[in-house]
Records
---
Amino acid sequence: MLEPESITKRATDILRNVYHYAFRQGQLEAIILAVLGRDVVVRMTTGQGKSLFYQIPPLLCQPSLCLIVSPLSALMHDQMEKLRQMNLHVQCFVSVQQISQCSDADIKLSQYVYLSPECAVSSEWRSRLKNLELWDKVCLIAIDEAHCVVEWGDEFRVDFAKLSCLRELASCPVMVLTATATKLTMSRILSRTGIENPTFVKCPLNRKNMYYLATTKKTPTRHQLLQSSSLYSRRQK
C-alpha cells in the first residue's frame, strides 16, 4: 500500500503534468483517503473541481478501474472526451443496450467507466464485470451529484436508491460528492450507498470570483440593476 507522502508527491506530479492545475483546499486530502481505502464524503461547491477527486486515484493505483455514477449524461460525456484527449481509456454507459454493444477488450482496458444509475445497478453490468473478473480491479466507486440519491431515488429514478448493491460486489472505497446536502439528506445518502463510517471533507463555500450585494428593491428596477452592475465592475478593477 502507498504511504501518504508517496501519494501526495505522485498526485501533485499528476495534477501539474497532466491537468496543469494546483490543488484546491480539500482535494488532496480526499484523494489520499480514497487511495488508502477510506470511504469519503465530499461537499464542494459547483465548478470547483470535484471530478479530480475520482479521476486521480486510478492513476495512482494502476492497474485499476474507477466507476463513476452520475445522473447527468451531458456531464459524463464531456468528462469522458476530456479524459480521452489525455490518452486515458474511458467508457460511458447511459443505457443497458450500450453495455451489451461494448466489447470485452474495451471494458478490460478501461481506467474509468461512467454509468447512469440505471446501468450501474443493472444485472447486465454487474454480471459483465463478474464474467470479466474485473470487480477486484475496481479501486473506487464515485457517486457524483449524490443528493439525487435522496431527491430522485424515491419516485423519479428509483435505481438511485439501489446503489448499495455495488458495495456488496467490490471491496473498494466509496466516494460520494455533492454541492448541496443537509444533515438529514446526508444520513439518507449514506444509508442508501452502504457507507457507515466515512471521512467528511468539506471544502470552503466562499468563492473569490463571486460578489454578493444586498439592497432594498426600488423603482424603476432596471435602473437599480444597472447601478449594481456598475458598482460590481468598479470593485473588480
---
Amino acid sequence: MNSVLEHHCSVTPPFTMAGHLLLLVLITVCSETKGQVTDLEAPKLSVDPKIITKTGSVHLNCQTPAPVTDCFYSFGKTPAKKLPCRHSVNGSTLLSLVGRDSPGEVSVTCFYLSSRKSPHSERKVISVQDLGPPVLSVHPSVITEFSTVTLFCQPPVYVSTSRCSFYSLTGLKWEGPSCVRTLRGSDLMKNQRPPTEQQLKCYYFENENTSPSPHTATKSTVTVKDLAPPTLTMMPSVITETDTVTLSCQPPSYVSASICYFYTTSGKSLHVTDCVQTLRGSDLLMVTQSPPTEVQVHCLYVVQLESATSTSPHSKETNVTVQTTTTTKTTTTTTSRTTAHLFSTEPTTSQEKTTSQNPVQSETAKAPGSENSSATKNLIMWLTIILTACGATVGCVMLVAAFFCTKKRKDKVKSQDSYHCEQPLSGENNLRGTEPEHAANSASVSVNQPNVQPDDEADPYHPYASIPDENYSSPKNNFQYSFLQMHNH
C-alpha cells in the first residue's frame, strides 16, 4: 500500500483542473503516511557521575516513554549494544568498549524499539580519569602536648570514599575508616620532648579491593611546643585600698585555657580561677602589709586534656602600687549678727577633701577603677556641707531666741520695780513734782491699785495735770533707792 501511494505521489499530474484536485489529494495522503512512520519520541539519557576513575562506576539511565525493558546503547562509534535501560558500568569497561587503555572521554547515546526503532537520545560524555592524589589539611598547625590537632585527607571530588590513612615521615602511621582524624600532641612526639615538628602525608582507598591512591603531593607540618608562660597585665597600675584593678592572665595563642591562678611575690594566693578578674586594692595586701606599698603579682594557667592536667610556667612579675587615702578638713568661718548687734556666733562649715599621698596621682585623671570611690567621697562631702549648714542655721535661731528671752526678762524686772516704788495717790499735792518720768509710763498700774480712793472734789484728769512743764532730771542715784527714801519719809 505504501509503495503504491509513493508511486502515485511521484506521478506528474496533467495541468488540468481535475489534475490539480488529484494532486492535492495525493499530497494529503502522503503526509499522513509519513507522520505515522515518525510518531515515536526520543528517550532521555542521564549519566551519574560524569567523571569517574577506572575502578569507579557510572550509572546509565535511558528513560523511554514506552514501557520497554531493554535499550540499545552506542559508545563512541561502536555498534549499539543491547543492555538494560538502567545499567552501571565501570571506567575500565567503558575504555575497553571504545578500544582504549588510557584515561579519556567516552560519548554515549541510547534508543529503544517499540514496533520500530525510536530516535536516538542526546549525546552524553563520560570522563574516565586515573586516581588523583588527596589534599591534606591540619588545624591548628601549632599545638602543645596537652592539646589536639585535626587531620583531614580530602580525595578528589570525583572519588567517593571514606577510608584514608595518615603517616609521618618519621615512621608514625594512623589508619582508620574515616578521612578525618584527631590526634593529641603526645601522639606526634614519638618519645621526643617538645618543641618538635612532624611532617605528615595521607592517601585513600577508593574501595576495599582497589590499590591505594597516590600520596599527597605536599607535606603538612604540625609543631608541638611546650607550655609557654602567660602574659600578665594590670590596669590601672596605681590604686587605693578601695579602688579596683583588672588582672588579665593571657596564655599564648596556641593554648586554649580558661583556668588561671594569681599570686603575689610575698606569698599570698588570690584564689582566682578566671583568667580575667577585677580585685580591690585591699585584696592584694597581706595581713601584715599596709598602704602605701608596691605589690608584685604573677600568674599561671592550667591546661586539661581528658584526665591529664598540666600547669604553665609563671608569668613575669607586674607591679601595682596600693596607696592609702587621707582626709583633711578645711574650715570656713562665717559670722552672723542680730539686728541689735548684741550677740554674734561663728558656725563652721566643714568640707572634707580626699587627697592621695602621691601628688602626681592626685593631679592626673582618675583611673577607671576608682569611679565608685570618687562617687562615695563626693556624696560624703555634700552630706557634710548640708549637715553643717543646718547646724549653723539652728544655732542662729537659738541665739536670736535667747536674745529676745533675755530682753523680755529685763522688761519684766522693770515693771516689778516700778510697781513697788509707786506712791499712794492721796491728793494732788502728792503727785506734783514727785512722780518720775517712768512713773508716767506706769500710770495704769498706779491707778488700778485697790487701796487708792480718788477725791470726789479732785479733777478727774489730775494725773496728767500733775506732770510739770519743765524737764525733769532723774536723780544721780539708783531710782529704786531714791523712791524708797521718799516712801520712808
